[in-house]
Amino acid sequence: MEDTVFCGVFDGHGPYGHVIAKRVRNLLPLKLGSHLESYLSCEEVFKEISLNTADRMTSDSLVQISANGESRVYNKDQDMVQMLLTSIVKAYRFMDKELKMQVDVDCFCSGTTAVTMVKQGQHLVVGNIGDSRAVLGTRNKENKLVPFQLTEDLKPDVPAEAARIKRCRGRIFALRDEPGVARLWLPNHNSPGLAMARAFEDFCLKDFGLISVPDVSYRRLTEKYEFVVLATDWVRDITLSMK
């Protein structure tokens, strides 16, 4: 795909987190590319069919002819955004399934966060699991550079995350020596104490509320948006402490 960029940051945790983070870094772009290719191949078929329906197609639309002969017009921008959003979710899902099948690394209590972005032309789609962040650098009316956070830190005590964890019998509490850090624990054991509600791997917690489904968001880029910063919680915390 022309004018397309993929970027990601993967922050491992646990005894084998560094290995898992590298593996996700290497494989997730391939998973995403595979899903995008399948969508694009369908789009090429739609375009070929539409050559004979020019009177029903505009430059910004795509016509799909169904099996019963009915036509449906798709807006190209809407279709592209939906393709990117769906592909990211599917790539994350298949990535976690593939990691579970690998036997050379113990992923029971190790895992990684992931914050990824795909920029395609003026479309920016972000997928996030864990507590790394994507921050957009933008200009305000006074032409000053200001940050805009594109992601939410998916901590166990975020209300929607906490509700899911509790439905799955996971426990959430903070240790006495770090009262501000909510952690996810097994129902009957004070372990592993994961400080996030979503992550790849950590299969000891997957039955107790931890998921690897990304939180996805979309933004259409304009001239006031200048750059995106992807960073781990460690980079963020160090930056805040320096201030």
UniProtKB/TrEMBL annotation:
PROSITE patterns: PPM_2
A family per Pfam: PP2C
All copies of domain PPM-type phosphatase, residue ranges: 1-243
SMART domains, A to Z: PP2Cc (SM00332)
InterPro entries: PP2C, PPM-type-like_dom_sf, PPM-type_phosphatase-like_dom
A GO molecular-function annotation: protein serine/threonine phosphatase activity
Protein's name in the database: PPM-type phosphatase domain-containing protein
Organism from which the protein derives: Brassica oleracea var. oleracea
